[in-house]
Design a protein that fits this description.
alpha/beta, Protein-Tyrosine Phosphatase, Chain A, 14% strand, 42% helix, globular, 158 residues
């Protein structure tokens, strides 16, 4: 089983779905807390539209709320971004407070083996971890990907 990660910022709908198809993604793992993006530019990744399109493409959809950062952790990153004058859509890396809290409060408590078992049961070969940020290091999906790499899974950032 291989893992991929991808955000949506900077992509048009045809580019986004094209990457899924081109890379043979068979399972889409949404790790967002709020499964909507403000504005019409990214409406195609709002939950219902996204799930309908994935179904059309024959791609499984899984939402794992337990891997989403809490509102408090997100607020800590917003505060760090405000201090540096960084906009969420242009952030290139998560701050140390976010990383520490996400690791302790989310990743250490989440049983990644449960996810692997679920993916094996549905016959997954290529799974994609999804959140919105353009750069993997600006998003918690990179931290989940790192944990998977430590378990000897192959991870590719699209």
């Amino acid at each position: 089983m291989e893992f991929y990660t991808m955000g949506v910022y900077g992509l048009k709908d045809h580019e986004f779905f094209g990457k899924l198809v081109e890379n043979g993604i068979d399972t889409f793992i949404d790790i967002r807390r709020r499964r909507a993006v403000r504005g019409s530019e990214y409406v195609f990744v709002n939950s219902n539209r996204l799930q309908n399109k994935l179904k059309e493409l024959g791609i499984n959809y899984i939402h794992i709320l337990d891997l989403a950062p809490t509102n408090e952790i997100r607020d800590a990153q917003k505060k760090a971004d405000a201090q540096t004058g960084t906009a969420k859509r242009t952030r290139e890396e998560l701050g140390p407070v976010f990383k520490h809290r996400y690791e302790k409060e989310i990743l250490e408590k989440y049983d990644i083996g449960q996810l692997i078992d679920q993916l094996v049961q549905i016959g997954c070969r290529k799974a994609l971890l999804f959140c919105v940020e353009r750069q993997p290091n600006a998003c918690h999906r990179s931290m989940v990907a790192n944990k998977l790499q430590h378990l000897n899974y192959s991870v590719h950032h699209l």
